[in-house]
Each structure stands twice: as C-alpha cells, then as structure tokens.
Write a structure and sequence with these properties.
Blueprint: H1 4-26, H2 58-61, E1 63-70, H3 76-85, E2 91-95, E3 101-103, E4 112-118, E5 124-127, E6 138-143, E7 147-152, H4 155-161, E8 163-168
Antiparallel strand pairs: 1-2, 1-8, 2-3, 3-4, 4-5, 5-6, 6-7, 7-8
C-alpha cells in the first residue's frame, strides 16, 4: 500500500515535470502550429560586432607593478608615491596564452586571462571577452608606459576600489 506522503511526493514530481515540459515548449525549442496567417517572420538576431583592438598592447603592461588606489583626484600624486613604495611586494601582470594578460577581476581571488579591448570612442578596457565595456571590465584612464590608471566599470566595484594606480617597478638588479 502507498502512503499518502509518498503519493503526494509522486504527484508533486509529476506536476513539476509537466510544468517543465510546458515551459520548455515555450522557449523556442519546439514550434507549435499557428492558426493566424498574418504573423510576421521572426527577426534575425543582430550579429555581435567584432571586438576592436585596443591602442595599448598586452605586452606593454606585462611586468611588475606597485599598486595603490585613490578616490579623490587630488590624491593622485600621493597615491603614485604609495604605489611606488609597494614595489617591494609587486603586483605581477604576466602574458596570457592567447595574447591577453593575467590579472584579477574585481573580488576574484584567482587571476585569469583578460583581454585589452578598444572601443569606437577611443577608450581602452581590460576585461574578459565579450561586449565592450562589460560589467567586469576596467577602463584604462591613463597609461604612459610607467604609470597605468584604471577604474572598474561596475559601479559597486568602482566605489570600493577607486582608481587603481599601477606604477612600474624598476627592473631587478
């Protein structure tokens, strides 16, 4: 004999399965016949524009960097000095296997390969593959070969991390 608790569980699973099948049919996987003759043809999805190359190459930012950040632009000079002092424990940017650079994303403990991406407006970004600028990207505010300043696109990350200042460390003797 089947207990009522077991029967209720089986009935709930059956109902959930039926609902999943019905919802799956709505997702475009199956096409149900239409009885109206005036339906317009489905629009094609627009193609993703090719990723624009950045004006800064990945090999230009590979190296050892002192790192600090500021919120107030008036603190930039002081922050650059603080970043320079961090060269005793540098942040290392290495070259990625597919032409990018190995860096951390906001709030990620493990670094990963990121791309340098350009935009029609002429701005450069560092981030994972995808639309530019993406939520995980950081905009390169300025770069002169010696000092790199970036800011995260994500508003929350930008507020927490501020303007990230990377100062190139002198080569090891």
């Amino acid at each position: 004999m089947i207990s009522s608790a077991h029967a209720r569980t089986v009935a709930n699973l059956a109902a959930a399965s039926c609902l999943a099948l019905l919802l799956g049919a709505c997702g475009g996987g199956m096409s149900l016949p239409s009885f109206s003759s005036s339906s317009p043809p489905p629009e094609a999805e627009p193609g993703v524009a090719p990723e624009m190359p950045a004006t800064i190459r990945g090999d230009e930012i590979v190296g050892r960097w002192g790192l600090a950040s500021f919120q107030n632009p008036a603190d930039r000079a002081r922050t650059e000095a603080a970043a320079r002092a961090q060269c005793k424990n540098p942040y290392v940017i290495t070259a990625g296997s597919s032409g990018g650079v190995i860096m951390h994303l906001a709030d990620q403990a493990t670094p990963q390969e990121l791309r340098l991406k350009g935009s029609p407006s002429g701005k450069n970004y560092i981030g994972p593959a995808g639309p530019t600028p993406g939520e995980q990207d950081r905009e390169i505010i300025s770069f002169d070969g010696r000092v790199l300043i970036t800011r995260f696109i994500d508003k929350d990350a930008a507020t927490r991390y501020g303007n990230m200042v990377y100062v190139r460390c002198a080569p090891r003797a």
